[in-house]
Amino acid sequence: MHTIWKGAISFGLVNIPVKMYAATEEKDISMRYLHSKCGTPLSYVRKCPNCEVEVAWEEIQKGYEYEKGKFILIDKEELDQLKTDTSREIQILDFVRLSEIDPIYFQKTYYLGPGDTGVNAYSLLMQALNNSGKIGIAKVTMRSKTTLAAIRIIDNCIAMETIFFPDEIRPVHQVPNLPEKTEVSDKELQMAEMLIEQLTTPFDPAKYRDDYRERLLGLIESKMKGEEFKVAPDTPQTNVVDLMAALQASLEAVQPKLDPKAAADPGSGEDAKPAAAAKKTTKAKTAKTTRKKTARKAT
């Protein structure tokens, strides 16, 4: 695994040397643009449309567009002067519970391995985090950008999750057409809850696959072998307008043995029970009554 950053974790007066590694990798299949006439890969040229000449890197300058077509020019030296934190340090500011952070804040995950020295301090922090059930909120500068980060444990390894600053999260009220009041049918709600229960399972990431990437790889391999590639037709989707009908069809699809009458009329109010539970209760009552009759006859 390639080291992408070296530094140290600090909290209080404790300093722990670490090496950073990418915890994830992109699996997108990279393809280049070719000239259709000759098959030659295309190259990109930095060209000024005003001067109509190719521009070298040393002639390129950064600028901020404050109005359409109007820029504030900024030199590299001016940007360098703004960098106040150039230390290679992951400074833990606070400790919080992971459950307090909404997943919307998380960006990218990195593994932090122990440096050439400080293995004992690394183990100490890892064990302390495990025992406390807390994670660290830290600040770190990477690639000239300061970001927040969460320091936590993943499978006996200290990991760092970069997270957004609060002002980088767009407020929910900007989403158009959000319902102001939630009004749903009791029967529709109960059927939806039944459907959720039927589809509930322990999380197993191995069961989820990138179907498009697998089909694209199949297409590439078939073309390399000179074979014809065929894609299975998609399952036709039924345009169900009635919400109750859609819920009923979904329940029948995930649980074929479910009593259709019970699924169609799951009951209403707080005393309503799912069909399976009601059926179980009825059987229990019937058995109890039969035992009582048998006992009286024996007497």
TrEMBL record:
InterPro entries: DNA_bd_Ku70/Ku80, Prok_Ku, SPOC-like_C_dom_sf. Keywords: DNA damage, DNA recombination, DNA repair, DNA-binding. Pfam families: Ku. GO terms for molecular function: double-stranded DNA binding. Residues 52-180 form the Ku domain. Residues 280-299 have a biased composition (Basic residues). The keyword DNA repair applies. The keyword Zinc does not apply. It comes from the Bacteria. Residues 257-299 are annotated as: Disordered. SMART domains: Ku78. Signal peptide: none annotated. GO terms for biological process: DNA recombination; double-strand break repair via nonhomologous end joining. Belongs to the prokaryotic Ku family. NCBIfam families: Ku_bact. PANTHER family: NON-HOMOLOGOUS END JOINING PROTEIN KU. Homodimer. Interacts with LigD. With LigD forms a non-homologous end joining (NHEJ) DNA repair enzyme, which repairs dsDNA breaks with reduced fidelity. Binds linear dsDNA with 5'- and 3'- overhangs but not closed circular dsDNA nor ssDNA. Recruits and stimulates the ligase activity of LigD. This is Non-homologous end joining protein Ku. It comes from Insulibacter thermoxylanivorax.
